[in-house]
């Protein structure tokens, strides 16, 4: 049975990774699960310099999901390389670095710096964080800006590039096409959805940032549709994510058109989810006499 | 730190809205340090997905217990679980209290509400017996006083409504003790000067802030356990942060990993909510 998939020149032993911002820098979960069983580890978003992040409360639980407005707290490129890279480098599975910036030039500079680090599996361009004022989402909601970010990063690195699209657009198709045209090797779909919750006793928003990004099982059907929309527009691989908590959820993403999947919010409540999803996918393939995971991609039956 | 299914041994009402839950969790029990916590997944919660953090109250051989207050869906559901039922626990988590060395500091513990639970193991393992100052709104908010007395500790109670102990905030008897150690003449035991006192506190943030201020004014060291909303409990999501001083200013640090216990002088109280 073949579980391995490719993202540009990067080959993954299986198609199940963990989503940026939900798995820290890998090391935190290494005592609870064997990271070498994963397809890849995707780390929390990093820009050039350190980022303090938003005031608290930063997350709130909602029905079948959660809101977050962390504000991309992080150590910056140098802090990351010093503190976290030695551990990630020692893993047998690739690390994908989620990067962002407030200008096109910053994205390109961060890409260049990670190119020089050596041993990075791929870069995921976060153009879709809803929780910071500058950078992030603005690049993901204007196809021309998105094209410039991808093109600049493409020039700055030979590493595989994954563009993580924003769901906060009328149609993902122009964004998927722009990323593909500018040399993105793959797409990640989807980031969190802009959302809000209010405490009715205090009448205060549940997040200090007032609004945040909605994630978890409640977004899955919307994410499936986004993957489906993009699949019909582009040829490059799609990493599907949004509310996956079981192999069944993951398989739905493959059928809609994903080539790989990522587990996000579920890590917080069941850290073993990714491993359970890998095992469950194998069972499914066996039960259905499928020998290669790639046969599932886009295999939804329409009639 | 492990993640494992744990079985409910007992789950009984303590006072009013407070319950004691005893779980079979040998690996966690053996590893627990004072001030650490458990992250519990309550399986019947279905559409409320996240785990809930609770301080480890007692850890004995095969079991750990928590003392919790029912305040919402998770704790209400927890209160309905019975012996033999299972839930998933991650623990022990977090950086706890520093147990004083033999002949070292004498702990003055300051607790509000379920903050008492976080301090029991510290009292049990401290070579010097000290004083525990416990406060709450009403008499029913004063938890596990008997356990501390059984350890031979002096317990001083304050309630806001005056229904038990001194009327007012817990910081009043604390201040009185620090300013004038002989003031406890009315208490059962004979007065003695506390040798080398150190403060340890767990409770609501305003209480912790007040304790930090007292510590600063009286040049005492204080370790405080912060109560912040948590999500992952293991350091990956960056939900649970508080502002902590650094060489060049301050940064947000995680209460689930760098904390929940911090040196009170490290916290930037002007920024903390
Ligand atoms: C390190 C740590 C140790 C803790 N130890 C204990 C303990 O020993 N005993 C105990 O009873 N509780 C303890 N708590 C608090 C406990 O985690 C919450 O009471 C619990 O998560 C509430 O879950 P719920 O589903 O019942 O409430 P929800 O339905 O989620 O929320 C109900 C209401 O309570 C508020 N709330 C939720 N969590 C907290 C919190 N952490 N602090 C203040 N308000 C909150 C919510 O904003 C909401 O208004 C601890 C918290 C932390 C961070
Ligand atoms: C707390 C939190 C932090 C996140 N941080 C990032 C981030 O730094 N960069 C990024 O591209 N996505 C980030 N995301 C989005 C996730 O990677 C993922 O796209 C999203 O959560 C949807 O998947 P899920 O429903 O399985 O969680 C974050 C999500 C959460 C919940
Ligand atoms: S609760 Fe996730 S980092 Fe502390």
Helix-strand blueprint:
The complex is a heterodimer of chains A (303) and B (273).
Chain A: E1 5-7, E2 10-12, E3 16-18, E4 40-42, E5 59-62, E6 65-68, H1 76-83, H2 85-89, E7 95-99, H3 104-117, E8 122-126, H4 137-140, H5 143-156, E9 161-164, H6 173-181, E10 186-189, E11 193-196, E12 198-199, E13 204-205, E14 211-215, H7 220-231, E15 238-241, H8 247-256, E16 260-263, H9 266-269, H10 273-287
Helix pairs in contact in A: 3-5, 5-6, 7-8, 8-10
Chain B: E1 2-13, E2 18-24, H1 26-31, E3 37-41, E4 52-55, E5 58-60, E6 63-69, H2 73-79, E7 86-93, E8 106-112, H3 115-125, E9 131-136, H4 145-150, E10 154-159, E11 166-167, H5 171-179, E12 197-202, H6 205-217, E13 222-225, E14 241-246, E15 249-254, E16 261-263
Parallel strand pairs in B: 8-9, 8-12, 9-10, 10-11, 12-13
Antiparallel strand pairs in B: 1-2, 1-7, 2-6, 3-4, 3-7, 5-6, 13-16, 14-15
The structure holds flavin-adenine dinucleotide, flavin mononucleotide and FE2/S2 (inorganic) cluster.
What is the mean pLDDT of chain A? Answer: 95
**Distance between termini of chain B?**
29 Å
List SSEs of chain B in N-to-C order: EEHEEEEHEEHEHEEHEHEEEE
Give the total of domains of chain A.
Answer: 1
Give the structural class of chain A: alpha/beta
Q: Looking at this structure, what is the CATH superfamily of the largest domain in chain B?
A: Nucleotide-binding domain of ferredoxin-NADP reductase (FNR) module
């Amino acid at each position: 049975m073949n579980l391995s998939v490719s993202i540009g020149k990067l080959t993954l032993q299986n198609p199940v990774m963990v989503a940026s911002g939900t798995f820290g820098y890998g090391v935190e979960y290494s005592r609870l699960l064997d990271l070498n069983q994963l397809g890849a580890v995707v780390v929390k978003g990093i820009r050039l310099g350190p980022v303090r992040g938003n005031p608290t409360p930063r997350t709130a639980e909602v029905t079948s999901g959660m809101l977050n407005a962390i504000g991309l707290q992080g150590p910056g490129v140098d802090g990351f390389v010093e503190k976290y890279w030695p551990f990630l480098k020692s893993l047998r599975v690739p690390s994908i670095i989620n990067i962002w910036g407030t200008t096109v030039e910053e994205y390109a500079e961060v890409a260049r710096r990670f190119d020089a680090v050596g041993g990075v599996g791929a870069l995921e361009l976060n153009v879709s964080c809803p929780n910071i004022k500058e950078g992030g989402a603005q690049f993901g909601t204007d196809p021309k800006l998105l094209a410039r970010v991808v093109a600049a990063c493409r020039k700055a690195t030979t590493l595989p590039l994954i563009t993580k699209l924003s769901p906060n657009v009328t149609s993902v198709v122009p964004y998927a096409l722009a990323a593909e045209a500018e040399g993105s090797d793959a797409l990640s779909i989807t980031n969190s959805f802009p959302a809000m919750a209010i405490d009715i006793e205090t009448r205060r928003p549940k997040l200090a940032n007032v609004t945040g990004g909605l994630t978890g099982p409640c977004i899955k059907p919307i994410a499936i549709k986004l993957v489906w929309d993009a699949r019909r527009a582009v040829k490059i691989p799609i990493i599907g994510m949004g509310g996956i908590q079981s192999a069944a959820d993951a398989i739905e993403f493959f059928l809609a058109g994903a080539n790989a999947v990522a587990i996000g919010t579920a890590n917080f409540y069941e850290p073993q989810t990714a491993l359970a999803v890998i095992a469950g996918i194998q069972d499914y393939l066996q039960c259905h006499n499928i020998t290669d995971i790639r046969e599932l991609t886009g295999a939804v039956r329409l009639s | 730190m492990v993640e494992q299914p744990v079985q409910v041994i007992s789950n009984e009402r303590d006072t009013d809205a407070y319950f004691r839950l005893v779980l079979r969790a040998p690996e966690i029990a053996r590893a627990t340090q004072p001030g650490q916590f458990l992250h519990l997944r309550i399986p019947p919660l279905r559409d409320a997905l996240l785990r809930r953090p609770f301080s480890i109250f007692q850890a004995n051989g095969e079991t750990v217990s928590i003392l919790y207050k029912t305040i919402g869906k998770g704790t209400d559901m927890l209160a309905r679980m019975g012996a033999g039922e299972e839930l998933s626990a991650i623990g022990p988590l977090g950086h706890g209290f520093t147990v004083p060395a033999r002949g070292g500091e004498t702990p003055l513990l300051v607790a509000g509400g379920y903050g008492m639970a976080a301090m029991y193991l510290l009292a049990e393992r401290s070579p010097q017996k000290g004083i525990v100052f416990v406060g709450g709104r009403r008499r029913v908010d004063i938890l596990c006083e008997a356990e501390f007395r059984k350890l031979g500790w002096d317990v001083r109670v304050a309630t806001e409504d005056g229904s038990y102990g001194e009327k007012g905030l817990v910081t009043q008897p604390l201040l009185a003790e620090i300013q004038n150690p002989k003031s406890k003449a009315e208490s059962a035991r004979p007065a003695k000067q506390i040798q080398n006192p150190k403060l340890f506190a767990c409770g609501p943030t305003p209480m912790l802030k007040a304790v930090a201020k007292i510590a600063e004014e009286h040049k005492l060291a204080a370790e405080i356990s912060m109560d912040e909303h948590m999500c992952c409990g293991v350091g990956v999501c960056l939900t649970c942060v508080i502002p902590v001083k650094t060489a060049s200013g301050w940064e947000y640090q995680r209460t689930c990993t760098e904390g929940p216990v911090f040196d009170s002088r490290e916290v930037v109280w002007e920024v903390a909510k």
